[in-house]
Amino acid sequence: MGDRLTGKVAVITGASSGIGAASARRFVEEGAKVVVADVQTDLGEQVVSELGDAARFAQCDVTDEAAIAAAIDLATSTWGRLDVMFNNAGVVGAVGPVADTEAAAWARTIDILLTSVFYGCKHAARVMVPQGSGSIISTSSAAGILGGLGPHAYTASKAGVIALTKSVAAELGPQGVRCNAIAPGAIPTALTAHAMSGDVNDLDAVAESSRQRYGRASDALDIANAALYLASDEAGYVNGHTLVVDYGRTTNGGSTRFAGSSAGMVGIPGRDPAPPG
């Protein structure tokens, strides 16, 4: 057990499974007290039972502003403060061609993935600003950075999370409150498994896909560790940033043909010497 979050209190939405549950466990390991906020009551209470006195459960539909406010109030009434707000809950949401996407499905997806983050930032701010300190973290996605990695509403929402993070960081930073985002790649969670195979339990398929592509399997702990860093005082000068954790998926779209064994320089035809060979 470490002490990187000793004395800190966190609220994590979507914390009954996947990235949220991994983060709750990691935060508690490092000394934090955690409110597990999720709509999945049974799973959430299982996580809290595992974590013991360091955790509380809040039944929370993140599209309900009052529910997010109540989760934060539970943290402050139980432990007297709020140091970390991790807006993490998510779904795949509306899928299909843009011409066939229903407006209601689009709006519901935006509510879950983006408007909920606004609620989390809003109600975290009302506690953190008077404290003069705090870290707001929100889960975006590699799909919010690079087109074609997710459905339209999901992609738009996750890009919106990045923009909202920058905007809130600009407002709250001078008041001691940092706001950052994490953009995961394909992580073995129920959400990603459902998107890839239609089976929420097929987490191995997600990990294997990462292993085949990069030589290393992805894990929810990869994102939990990123959140731990942003939550900790180690990231005290990090604000308005999106930490991409995707093993380079959004940055390595180019060819590796120049990474061969021949050293030297590729010249400009007609001006520089031709490369050897």
Spans of 5+ residues with little confidence (pLDDT < 50)? Answer: none
What would you call the structural class?
alpha/beta
CATH class: Alpha Beta
Q: What level of helicity do the residues show?
A: 40-55%
> If helices are DSSP runs of H or I spanning 4 or more residues, what is the number of helices?
8
Overall geometric form: globular
CATH architecture verdict: 3-Layer(aba) Sandwich
Say which CATH homologous superfamily is assigned. Answer: NAD(P)-binding Rossmann-like Domain
Number of strands: 7
In N-to-C order, the SSE pattern is EHEHEHEHEHEHHHE
Question: What Rg do the Cα atoms give?
Answer: 21 Å
Mean of pLDDT: 88
- Determine the strand fraction and express it as a percent band: 5-15%
Distance between the termini: 57 Å
Tally the structural domains: 1
Q: Tell me about the biggest sheet? A: 7 strands, parallel
What is CATH's topology name? Rossmann fold
